[in-house]
Design brief:
two-stranded antiparallel ribbon, single chain, two-stranded antiparallel sheet, alpha+beta, 62 residues
């Protein structure tokens, strides 16, 4: 044939390792808010309602 033919059979373990890369579960990134709670970046804090040094959500205390 030509250069497009594989030189040998890949094992099922090698094939499955390659295919598993697209199904990885991404790690959740957390950053610390000004109030000290951990939060997802680029989102308003659920405990104090602050985003970008201003209050965007009113959070009930209690």
């Amino acid at each position: 044939m030509g250069a497009i033919c594989p030189k040998g059979k890949h094992s099922s373990a090698r094939r499955d390792k390659r295919r598993a890369q697209s199904f990885r579960i991404p790690k959740v990134t957390l950053s610390k808010c000004t109030c000290g709670e951990f939060m997802r970046p680029h989102r308003a804090c659920k405990s104090c309602g602050v985003y970008g040094n201003r209050e965007v959500i009113q959070v009930n205390a209690g």
